[in-house]
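ENTRY TYPE: paired fold submission
RECORD: A
CONTENT: sequence, then structure tokens
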Amino acid sequence: MSLKPCKDCGEPVEHTRCPDCAREVQRPESSKNREHVAFANLSRWKNLSKRVRRIQPWCDVCGTDQRLQANHVISTKERPDLTYAMENLSVLCAKHNGGRGRDCTPEERAEVERRLTAKKSRRHADTRGEGVSPTSVPMSGEAQTRLNTPGRYTS
């Protein structure tokens, strides 16, 4: 195996750094700590992030459409149950997401809570059987109106 110079002291070594220099160099906390709840199901998080960015393709703060990221409004450390809740997500560019920190304003918190309450009330209304009744849907198998598609499917 060929030897290369250590990145720090220049001594010939097999790897990137000699053992003494490797001990001095510490990895950043973010690269070795993968305990964030979004990493528990990485594909689920990636799909949700894509979905949120597709729904709103601009930054909430500056309006740019470049380098967008999904952001948890209420921190996942504070509310891990909201990790995959769309109501707790906003879209920010990398600059604003990086500078935001983990704290949210009382207004942002109230907006997330309002969205969650609205979602619960919609879900509760669906379970009570409100909405479209089976008698309002024609059961004859024929459309109520003619389909007028230019150049096709007209009778």
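RECORD: B
CONTENT: sequence, then structure tokens
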Amino acid sequence: MRSPLTDQGTMLNLRFSFADAHNRLSVGGWSRQVTQRELPAAATLAGVNMRLNPGSSREMHWHKEAEWAYMLSGSARVTSVDAQGRTYIDDIEEGDGWNFPSGIPHSIQALGDGCEFLLVFDNGGFSENSTFLVSDWLAHTPKDIIAANFGVSVEDLAGLPPTSATSSPRPCRPRSTPSAGPRLTGRCPTRSPTGCGGRSRCAPRAARSASWIRARFQRLRPSRRCWWK
């Protein structure tokens, strides 16, 4: 197969499939990523495709990159905490998404039959293998300091895991009422009236914690010529 005459061989690769990426397997699921290392043209974006088995979780972790996500299939429970100590819990279903600003600690636990989702980060050099995990902090912090922080004895910390990984399946407790922290996830809470061409909905400013993001979801019916004004 011959390249066209206009191809000088200097164009950066503009396509890299998740199917060609390394798949990291664990008891709790799998993950694969495409970053600037695999796709040199992606200097400002990195993508991760992750699957969690039923009951498995991506433990509490954080990173300097902002995170946007879209649930491809299944459902999960997402937990986060901000710098003011406010916590948030929400159940995410297929078609839902979330956004975590830089540095927000968060965790993801699969519900039902498990889940698969797409993560996008605002830095092409991001690596899913180098996020800061809460188990990393616990493993490298003296036990007496951890005990003093949580108000327990050092003996109570004997069962802390020495390493970190996607957890094995475990039961998921019923969701408690979340605190009044900022809404970072879920469906757009408002919807415009359904028109002849479909429907549209968007999140009002009061419901968005990220002032630099404006979101709208639209569903269009085929072969319609009506427009929203």
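NOTES ON RECORD B: The domain at 18-157 is CATH 2.60.120.10 (Jelly Rolls). Residues 143-150 form the longest helix (8 residues).
STATUS: closed
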